[in-house]
Amino acid sequence: MSYSSEEETDISDSELDEYVDRCYEQLKDGIRKVKFSDEVYRCPYCPGKKKLVYALKDLLQHASDVGKGSQNRDIKHKGKHLGLVRYIKNDLAQQILMLKSSRLKSDLAERGFDPVRVRLLSTGGYAVVEFKKDWSGFYMALMFEKEFEVDRHGKKDYCEAPHLADELYGWVARDDDYDLKGPLGEYLQKNGDLKTISDLVVDEKRKTGLLIANLSNTIQELRTRVDELESNYCKPPAAVIQKDEMQ
User: Fold this and answer.
1) Which mean pLDDT values do the consecutive 10-residue runs of the chain (247 residues) have?
2) 3-state secondary structure of 235
3) HEC states along 10-68?
4) Domain named Zinc finger-XS: which ranges (predicted)?
5) Which of 78, 79, 119, 163 has the highest CB neighbour count under 10 A?
6) 130 pairs with which residues across the strands?
């Protein structure tokens, strides 16, 4: 059954919002299925439509068009697609990012690198690969960068051939990336720590100094404890002394 535009005005925004909420919860609970395969999705509300499967961005566009359309449509049909839009943006997109991040981390590990974490950014097509925050991690990051450069997929190659950006390029983030406007720069400023090699050396010395100081304190405490134990062990018990005096 379809409603005219006049009939649609009889349904309040709150009623539509409640219906969108209900459709969204059904998608979250798996009552309505969206995923068709790892890369292909379908609209659970348009089974008879000529185009049955979509890439995720195309499914989002389809759901947005139906949900915002002004032509005569069943108001519930709009509500279902608005719920689908919310589900794609809030849940499905994040699930896909996490899955792709995990796959990329495994791929890099198989290539001999040892990433601590891989984070795909939701926009911009960037992924941030994190290594250990020590000299071994720094060395691994440089080897990571060198391998991409040798394969002509370093930062210079990326900047010179943006039309090939669908391929995987890699480099070590530096100050120009840190100061970049957009999702990459924002992420690095929020989560990264821009340092020079001199800064790393100073940090390492500071950490080493703290470690030595802590070890020295621990050794001194152990020596004091040993001295106390030896003193107590060599001192005769008071009860025995009293017994000897009585004899």
Assistant:
1) 39 75 91 82 82 85 84 75 93 87 92 91 86 86 93 90 74 91 90 71 66 67 69 54 44
2) coil
3) CCCHHHHHHHHHHHHHHHHCCCCCCECCCCCEECCCCCCCCCCEECHHHHHHHHHHHHH
4) 43-84
5) 79
6) 117
| Token pair 């509500």: residue | 79
As given in the structure block, the two tokens for residue 89 are 């943006």
Token representation of residue 48: 């008879």
> What length is written for the chain?
247
Tell me which residue of 28, 33, 22 sits closest to 59, measured CA to CA. Answer: 33
Placement of tokens 């071994």 in the chain: 136
Is the Cα dihedral 161, 166, 170, 174 positive or negative? positive
User: In this structure, which CATH number among 1.10.15.40, 3.40.190.10, 3.30.70.2890, 3.50.30.10 belongs to the domain 111-194?
Assistant: 3.30.70.2890
Q: What is the DSSP letter of 164?
A: G
